[in-house]
Design a protein that fits this description.
Distance between the termini: 45 Å
Number of helices: 17
Helix content: 40-55%
Shape: globular
Strand order of the largest sheet: 9-8-7-6-5-10-11
Radius of gyration: 22 Å
């Protein structure tokens, strides 16, 4: 008989706690009935490690707040009323069992029900293909693969999307315990960010707050007239468009600017969901040499404790065939020495394949010195000190001929991606930030 997903998670949590599965099921039932906390949330946020109702209450409120924020974001993005957004999310979640976060992150509100059903099938197929690849490498059953993937998330905090490229299937529990992970990044955020994170999540608010570090002009397609749009365009020949509250390169695209069709472009953009329209960044020639089709950015993990700044980790991303460098969008990344800005690993993508040179240009990665590294550290420190209470940020930085500029800031930067870059040599990187999680 095929075991259910619930049984799989119960087995994992019972094994970790050293208790019977019945005990875990009772705790799960209590969290679901009394606080409406779903199974995966309970497991992935390690709520099984506490049996106190106060913690469950806190997370129940967090879930409710997040649902309300997503509803508000959807209404603002689409122009719907809050009631329309709420009804739509209820329809999608009950019909397709898709979360509100997935609706926003994958722009599902722009799709028909038939397209959403196909999107879900495609996602399921990709997940199954990953499982089959791991089965071939390990000889495990499908259930054993699924269970180990879930365990790595529940126990060690490693995002499932990074399970394969982190080579988790080849590691012992002792090795996995030394690995940097996404759950630790959330914990760092909870500990060191005491202000509203909308300043990082909303691209418009981010640009307005950190304008002095951007090095480029921007315009928003809401509450703006044609005259302001023309002033923004000037003599630009191309603009970069991205939704104000999405990450991972979702929904981004470029638009050419025709001198005789500026009004037509304005009308087009005003009908789009709320987005940031930016001047296109002209990156440093040394970064373009790897791949010129995208802006190849540096991610710098920064923290401020007791007024002391630390850039404790970094990696650099490169596009491969598309306009985005994000690993989730098909890009590849290399580990960087945060002390001097030198690339210290080959590149890795979502598939875990190592690239000593860029697959499209043949430019070698390891040993490359990222330009303006000290200026990058200075820039990110100034940005981190800009907003009181925002003391942990993963900054995305682009390089131009004149120096570094900010692209985005992330309140939960993915330490799982960072860790995957060192997986080929089984080197756990948790030590780079462990001291900040003490106490």
């Amino acid at each position: 008989m095929k075991k259910s997903e619930t049984t799989m998670y119960v087995e994992i949590m019972a094994q970790q706690l050293g208790v019977s599965e019945d005990v875990v099921r009772k705790r799960l039932d209590h969290a679901r009935k009394e606080f409406h906390i779903p199974l995966k949330y309970y497991a992935n946020h390690r709520l099984y490690l506490t049996d106190g109702d106060e913690t469950l209450k806190m997370h129940a409120k967090r879930l409710q707040d997040e649902r309300e924020k997503i509803t508000t974001r959807l209404a603002q993005t689409t122009g719907w009323t809050l009631k329309e957004a709420q009804d739509y999310l209820l329809h999608i979640t009950t019909t397709f069992h898709i979360t509100g976060k997935e609706v926003m992150d994958s722009l599902l509100y722009e799709k028909t029900d038939e397209e959403i059903a196909q999107w879900k099938e495609d996602k399921k197929a990709r997940a199954q293909a990953r499982i089959e690849r791991i089965r071939e490498k390990t000889g495990w059953s499908e259930y054993e693969v699924r269970k180990h993937m879930a365990k790595c998330k529940v126990v060690f905090g490693i995002a499932m999307a990074n399970y394969e490229n982190t080579l988790c299937y080849s590691l012992t529990d002792e090795e996995l315990a030394t690995y940097a992970n996404l759950e630790d990044s959330r914990r760092l955020g909870e500990k060191y960010i005491t202000a509203d994170t909308d300043v990082l999540k909303n691209k418009q608010l981010f640009n307005e707050t950190y304008r002095e570090f951007l090095g480029r002009d921007f315009w928003v397609n809401r509450d703006s007239d044609y005259a302001s749009f023309k002033r923004f365009l000037g003599f630009k020949r191309e603009v970069f468009c991205k939704p104000v509250d999405l990450f991972g390169a979702h929904g981004v695209y470029k638009k050419s600017v025709s001198f005789f069709k500026k009004r037509e472009l304005y009308d087009f953009l005003m009908k789009e969901p709320k987005m940031l329209v930016e001047e296109v960044i002209k990156q440093h020639p040394a970064m373009s040499a790897f791949y010129e089709g995208s802006i190849n950015t540096v991610r710098v993990f920064t923290i401020l404790k007791d007024d002391r700044f630390d850039a404790f980790a970094a990696f650099v991303r490169f596009g491969v065939g598309g306009i985005a460098d994000n690993v989730s969008a098909g890009g590849i990344a290399c580990g960087v020495d945060p002390a001097n800005g030198t690339i210290i690993t080959p590149a890795v993508g979502n598939d875990g394949v190592l690239h000593r040179v860029h697959p499209m240009t043949g430019v070698a990665f390891e040993g490359f010195q990222i330009p303006y590294w000290q200026e990058i550290l200075t820039l990110t420190e100034k940005a981190l000190r800009k907003v009181e209470g925002v003391n942990y940020v993963g900054w995305d930085v682009a390089l131009t001929k004149r120096g570094p500029i900010l692209v985005e800031g992330n309140n939960v930067p993915c330490l799982s991606i960072y860790q995957s870059l060192f997986a080929y040599r089984k080197e756990g990187r948790k030590y780079t930030y462990a001291k900040y999680l003490e106490e």
